[in-house]
Amino acid sequence: MEDNQEKPHAILMPCPLQGHIIPFVHLAINLASKGFTITFINTEFTHYRITKATTSANNQEYYDIFTEARTQFGFDIRYRIVSDGFPLVFDRAVNREQFLKGMLYIFSAHVDDLVGKLEQNTKPKITCLLADTFYVWPSMVAKKYNLVNISFWTEPALDFSLYYHWDLLKINGHFGYYDNREDTRKYIPGVEAIEPKDLPSYLQDTQTTTMNKMIYKGYENVKEADFIICNTIQELEPKPISALNEKQPFYSIGPIFLLNGFTNISIPTSLWSESDCTQWLQPKPHGSVLYVSFGSVAHCSKKDIIEIAHGLLLSKVSFIWVLRNDIVSSDDDDDILPVGFEDEIRDKGLIVPWCCQISVISNPTVGGFLTHCGWNSVLESIWYSVPMLCYPIFTDQITNRKLVVDDWKVGLNFCDKKEIRRDEVSEKINRLMSGKSATDLRNNIKQVKKTLQDAVSTIGSSERNFNKFIGDVKAKISEAAK
Ligand SMILES: O=c1ccn([C@@H]2O[C@H](COP(=O)(O)OP(=O)(O)O[C@H]3O[C@H](CO)[C@@H](O)[C@H](O)[C@H]3O)[C@@H](O)[C@H]2O)c(=O)[nH]1
């Protein structure tokens, strides 16, 4: 009991999105392996979806995603759920605006209520709040309960720097105006130069939206955090990271899914049921299959889906295409693919609503990834040495494309013109999969992979930063307890 009292105890809260839940779960495991007690909080809706997708458990209310981590590794990870303010039946995608307003103005009251209860009844005592940078309430909650306030950013440091200096963009007439200036931005600390077209979509907006407000408030909030951790790699983004470090303690600890070698723990995180693609991949030649996925939130138009489908056929390349059932948002039409497409692809193509991405791209038959450039997908693709065809849709994906294509040269642009056309889709797929361009990309990606490998080695930067972060947090907890 004495020992337990000494243990740091962190509450972890990801945004209720697939690309945030996964890195937060890896973070929970890593912190627990360093002796932290963790209370991991998912929203009730996220919990419901994971449960539905990954288990046949009858009593879903009591299902706990960390059971295996506790029994197999003895980690002290506890699991709780919190209401996001809406009933389970509420359609959060269709009513996105209303949902975002709830996250902006109401969710904090539910979090405050739960943290208050945990604070009274939990041993060891809760000492840290570790929340997603997108949340607007962590500093309020951390102050109220005297918790060390840690923010976790699940995107690159470059995107963080741009949002962090939102005020500079505004002062310089580059954001928030109907006619935003179009010249290169050269005054963001740690970012030599960035073109307007490469900014995250929310920083290209000319009008204030609820999402803008949320990010803006999130970034006001993060300025009060005691520590910021980021799922990136110091050697890949040295300048933004060192500029940010002059402002606040900022630790790059990525790729978090590789840190400390806990890649084999299976913790249910998937919001959709996964189709198994192993059998289908098995007879395919090495490096011959293109994997196509646009992540968990982005939407495409039916017109673009049709052009991509024709482009895939024209390319004659074998492919697995993850087509979520909500990929086309504004169309009630269930038939989004060209007529007869599924007959035409026969054994050349496999369409699935969701799969275990890591198990697909780690398969040696996969040689290319047509991706929306979500940050987790980028890191995973580099790790498994799969070059990318970049089709960024919104948010940080736009900026991530610049890192992948222009800076690291491990991917190609999908469509150079605004409009997606089947002939260009086919041509780009072939350039990604074969010939000199493919060889160059494969050579480059091996080098970038080496950077990731070094960073997570026992003497690598991410490992060192993570240990330093742990030491600094413990010191801060002791200070706060005085
Ligand atoms: O069929 C699939 C598709 C995806 N994944 C996994 O789901 C995660 C998806 O994350 P990501 O590639 O980052 O895409 P999003 O789900 O779109 O992620 C959101 O969160 C990311 C991190 O903040 C941002 O970079 C993205 O722009 C944002 O859309 C990855 O770990 C994938 O391995 C699967 O397991 N199966």
UniProtKB/TrEMBL annotation:
GO molecular function terms listed in the Swiss-Prot or TrEMBL record: anthocyanidin 3-O-glucosyltransferase activity; quercetin 3-O-glucosyltransferase activity; quercetin 7-O-glucosyltransferase activity
Gene3D superfamilies recorded: Glycogen Phosphorylase B
EC number per UniProt: 2.4.1.-
Keywords of the record: Glycosyltransferase, Transferase
UniProt keyword Transferase, yes or no: yes
Biological-process GO terms, alphabetical: anthocyanin-containing compound biosynthetic process
Coiled coil location: none
Pathway it works in: Pigment biosynthesis; anthocyanin biosynthesis
Glycosyltransferase as UniProt keyword: yes
InterPro entries according to UniProt: UDP_glucos_trans, UDP_glycos_trans_CS
The reaction(s) this protein catalyses: an anthocyanidin + UDP-alpha-D-glucose + H(+) = an anthocyanidin 3-O-beta-D-glucoside + UDP
Alphabetized PANTHER family for the sequence: GLUCOSYL/GLUCURONOSYL TRANSFERASES (PTHR11926), UDP-GLYCOSYLTRANSFERASE 85A1-RELATED (PTHR11926:SF774)
Family recorded in the similarity comment: Belongs to the UDP-glycosyltransferase family.
Protein's name according to its UniProt entry: Glycosyltransferase
